[in-house]
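Hi! If you just cloned this repository, the fastest way to understand the data is to look at a raw example. We've pasted two of them here, unedited. The first protein comes first, obviously.
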Amino acid sequence: MAVQGTVARTSRTLANAPGRNARNDRATTLGSMRCQRGRSIRTATRRPVKDQIQGKRLRSPRTLFTARFRAQANGSMDACEKEETVKVDFLVVGTGIAGLSYALEAAKHGSVLLVTKDKPHECNTNYAQGGVCAVLDTEDSVESHINDTLVAGAYLCDQKVVETVCQEGPARVAHLAELGAEFTKNAKTGDFHLAKEGGHSHPRIVHAADTTGKEIERALLDSVYMHPNIVMRDHCFVLELLLSKIEGKEHCVGAHIVESMTGHALRVLAKTTMLATGGAGQVYLNTTNPAVATGDGLAIAFRAKAEVANMEFFQFHPTSLYLEPAQRQDMTKAFLISEAVRGAGGRLLNLEGEQFMQGYDRRAELAPRDVVARSIDSEMRKHGQSHVLLDISDQPSSEILDHFPNIAATCKVFGIDITKDPIPVVPAAHYMCGGVKTGLDAQTNVPGLFACGEVAYTGLHGANRLASNSLLEGLVFAHRAVSSALEYSAAIEKDTVAHAWGSAMDVPLLSVSTSTVGEGFQALLHEKKLEVQNVMWQNVGIVRTVAKLQVARLQLAALHEEISCYLKDPAYPKPMELFELRNLVTCGQLIVWSALKRKESRGLHFCLDYKEQVEAERCPTVISAHRGGRVGKGSSAQVTQGKRKTHSILGSRMNAESHPVKTRCLPEE
């Protein structure tokens, strides 16, 4: 096919693209990287990714090769050699289920550079316990899965997106198994063991005991490491997206990346860029998300003027393990107690031992997460308690240990035997239902920029995510995005790409501070992060009021201005944590702005000033920032609630939503 042919010629086309000059002689392509790696790398013995995740191996052969190649390409690794340019077909940011799945599909058509902020497996996917849902049982149906998703999402979901994901899901889960993911089997039939979770009317959760995410991550990483068209670079922090004008409109042509271990700046020029950076749970004080989940992809996309939608809907998982402050020590994330525990018969009790969920919802423990989280919050407030209890001890011990070995082992560390004792639990920030707004094929309103996984708002989750739909969403949209990316690439002429990349070469690159940052400034950054987290936890949590949202808006605006001063003032060092903090504040502001614009309570957004659902408000909240605008004081961003007009981006179509149009400016800071 012509499209595939265009993309497949990367090694020659990009290396010899018109417009190359003395300044970019050091630019390299992944094609040349593959040529230089030699037989020794091809024949190297590979140890399984499982060893890496368990800490036996920290870097893959491909990552080691990348380091060697960079030294060869630049001549040396001296301190003066701090800037590098790489040209590639597909840039993928993030190594969770969405990023890895997309990279494997994209690599069939050209060169892929896969960058990740930390170790490759350090992502939300790796910590997912429950599983990935798909209709695989003859007694289940796609229609039932669709209905469960719409109900859980408080009917704010995009119907077309829900239908697409539920219909295409089974094939994607089957493909994941073909790649080597070892899911738990039914001992009698040999088929996948299907669990049931809150909000689902049938058992349809494919899982690997209670460490599903870790198994999926292992299988995908094994495949990625073996693919000749994919190069991975870890410990790479994306500072900004690179934009260049094509036919009068700014397109994304790559990213400005910094290696956090060395401070070296990396300019990646790519035909297409995929953001699969995960969520922003670290914006809250208590979260199940790892330390890397600081909303970087969302923030850089917003600064590049990508539209962002439904950020007011942040899901709090009802049951994370409650620990006393002395027990938590330096833990940066709460330990998740899977939804599947309630699905397997776990009962929620207050500290008096009373089962309370039936008094809040007829579905009791199997109600959707937003209902269960609010019920727990209400019960805790009613009795002045710090947590509630989740008791599954009345189930057979063998079944508990068979289905939840990781939960049992972790609880045992803290003196809890889940076969005999109730588990102390408390809600924790868990999943970002909003994100960078995309079409049905993962395309954003910024040409050349795509997004999938938790960083994206696709319309699937609506006002509340149905349990185990998130991994499925990542699989489906990663698969769909490739054809859209190829279509986009084919629509741009070679000379046009060369000119756009030439313009991007003129963008000065920044570096981050890697030398020891003074203890005082490091402590200040830690204090400011805690301040952001406390502002969000106290004012923008499970139950909200307009007054508290306004307090959060003002406090975050002040923090944004303070961080901007640190970034502008050359007297201050520029460690990666400072850029992370900026992104975290941006995410907090987007959540608050969106929450202030919704004049109702729906799904995860419950506001005491507007307790009822309002039909006129049943539409997405879309935030867009005009050129010249920025987050913070005097922002020229806008909030739109309603229909997105269908428009063309070099042959790619955005999806439309059937809701009334409401456009409002964001509050001035």
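Ok, and the second one:
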Amino acid sequence: FFANFCGALYTQRPPHSASAVTRAAARGGRAGDMSIRLRELIRNVRSCKTQADERACIHKECASIRTAFKDENNELRHRNVAKLLFIHMLGYPTHWGQMECLKLIAGSKFLEKRIGYLGLMILLDERQEVLMLVENSLKNDLQSSNQYIAGLACCAIGNISSAEICRDLSPEVEKLMVGSNPFVSKKASLCCIRILRKCPELCDTFLERIGTLLGSRNHAVLLTCLKLMREMCITEPAMIEQLRRHTPTLIAALKNLVLSGYAPEHDVHGIVDPFLQVEILTMLRVLGRGHSETSDQMNDILAQVATNTESAKNAGNAILYECVLTIMAIEVESGLRVLAVNILGRFLINRDNNIRYVALNTLHKVIAQDTQAVQRHRNTIVDCLKDNDSSIRQRALELVYALVNEANVKVLVKELLSYLLACDVEFKDELTQRICTVVEKFSTDKEWHVDTIIQTLSASTSFESEETVCSMIALITSTPELQAYATHKLYAKLADQTNQPVLLQLAVWCVGEYGEMLIGGVPAGVEAEAPDPQTVVELLTSVMRSPVADVTTKEYTINAFVKLTTRFANAPDSLALIHKQLAAYSCSMSLELQQRSVEYSSLLKLDAIRAGVLERMPAFAKKDRQAAAAAAAQTAAATPT
């Protein structure tokens, strides 16, 4: 308000003239009369070239204002306070002018009161004791016959009043609420919101006035009354039960808005007062949540709003969105829920990205309530993954995760893989982890599971996850018919010189564990030929020399070397190369690699136990790390110190 006020003065009021200065001097030449106007101060500040020039200009004007304030009969006090507010907006101290605001409020002219109340709300707050001095002026202005003065007092109470002032002036505000003047009634209703926040015990006092306010035909009064009702529900949740008796009144008001014809004073793009409709729907949502009887009363009107509201304009979309939220929050028929989800589906094909984002966000919240209805819009949701807006893609991605089940996992994962190839680099690792989780959770085809994980990891070269390695190993060890297939598939990636850390570890582990399957024959579904033992060992040797292989991968590879001594027992050339590699790392700078090489070299000399130690790993189940961590934390908490 003050910015507009300053701008209006700056652009509209004429500059000082010599005659004006002469007239001021003739009136007595007081310092207050000689002060410049607000627009001139703004012009002077804007013309300053440096910060020092601005400070000098402000300090000079502050000195002039101080001198003017000393004059008790200063007729231009309101002008000086207005300049003081502008100076405050620039960040300079103005606390020394607070009392002048109180003097303006105590005046009789509306112009002075307007500037005084504006200064009061800007320069003071509820924690300052000087605010108590204005309480009597507030009380008098609340009883004023001038509606604008009463409105100013309500505005001040609603912004900066303390709990004591709210408690003392609540009777006057309550009277204004139910008065015949709608301008004052709406101001008083908004003022009551502040009173309730400061004095929750007064909630019962205003409860009796709600019915009177809802009976008003003025839309502004209805709007502020609904705001007050929501605040009462937040401040005192027990009030919801008592406010439910007004549900028929709210339904009738909403029905009148939906079915009424053109009303020029309330029309917004062909919609009758969308602000009031949104507030009524929000209040109905609060009253109907968890109460079947109240919800049943709303079924018809919600269906009318959903079917009769035009969605071509943003105002209509706002109403439809609130209608959807209300339907999903209360206890309604399943058909109405499907209608609400279909509205969100229409939002998804809207050209406005804001509307599409809201639709995706809301669908993600309601999918738990009606999964089948959301599934009908799966294709539209998947199309949002191709949107140019990254926020739309991210929300669509979250929704696709929630839609995946055993029936559609192959279709949706295919779309996710397409998105993985095109998404930004910073999202690849997170998306890869989620795809792996979805495949592990919902896959029913083991071979498809392996192929999809390999394809996903190949598309994200920097992704690292010990959890993914463990889950794949658990799957392979527990599925004997999958072991040969997985080993050949992973070996093919290893032969292609993959740099993906997880793929390297999985491939090396499978080659070491199931080496005889790798050279024994090619299973169905694999096109490559079976390699010979020498080629396999040389490939593992190249992994050990690879600059992209970390210490963990090299540890996996040394384990694979020692395992292959029993798998390739009939290949002396391969065994010699394995012994050479183990000996080479017996002097490694990595203590772990050195220890493994020395111990494995010693193990290979113990023919009696070597075969038993190096036999295949038994099947094991993947551990639930979150459950294990929670159990460990619970055990630690229960252990006495």
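That's it. A detail worth noticing about the second one: Residues 229 and 445 are 56 Å apart (CA to CA).
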